[in-house]
Amino acid sequence: MPTYDFECEPCAYHIEMVQRHDAPQTHTCPICEQETLKKIYINAPSIIIRGEPTTVAQQAERNTAKMGNYELETKRANDKLNTELSKKQRETRERHRAIVSMTPEQQTHWVKTGERPSV
Ligand SMILES: [Zn+2]
Q1: CA distance 51 to 91
Q2: 66 and 22 share a domain?
Q3: Beta-bridge mates of residue 103
Q4: In this structure, are 60 and 30 located in the same domain?
Q5: Is position 45 within any domain?
Q6: Residue 13 Ramachandran class (φ > 0 left, ψ -120 to 50 alpha, else beta)
């Protein structure tokens, strides 16, 4: 199955999910808790080919690069929140932290089912 990028416009949450091409194009954003997580097309859907070291290595490199960007985005978002903290914003930030600490598989599971992983 192909991998698709999903992004939430209001909060810039980003996740890659493996799903069927005809699966829903929108999901509930785990941060906003709204149907704002939408399929985006940065690149053509990528498929990891097993038994192809070069391809897998490139995929891993790409993932690492994305992770760096994501952490930077998270830091920027936190810096912004720190300037004006309301109760609601603090709750959002806590939720965001919980999401960052999850594995990609847990994040995908949460987005698809709405169930938080039991720690
Ligand atoms: Zn969101």
Answers
A1: 44
A2: no
A3: none
A4: no
A5: no
A6: beta
Q: How many structural domains compose the chain? A: 2
Claim: this prediction has a pTM higher than 0.70: no
Burial of residue 115 (number of CB atoms within 10 Å: 0-12, 13-18, 19+): exposed
Give distance in angstroms: CA of 107 to centre of ligand 1: 13
Protein residues with C-beta less than 5 angstroms from the ion ligand 1 = 8, 11, 13, 29, 31-32
CB 17 within 8 A of CB 98: no
CA distance linking residue 70 with residue 7, whole number of Å = 12
Q: Could you tell me if 36 and 60 lie in one domain?
A: no
pLDDT tens readout for residues 40-67: 876 555 555 555 555 556 666 666 666 6
CA–centroid distance, 9 to ligand 1, in Å, is 7
Q: Is residue 104 part of a domain?
A: yes
Domain holding 16, by residue range, is 3-40
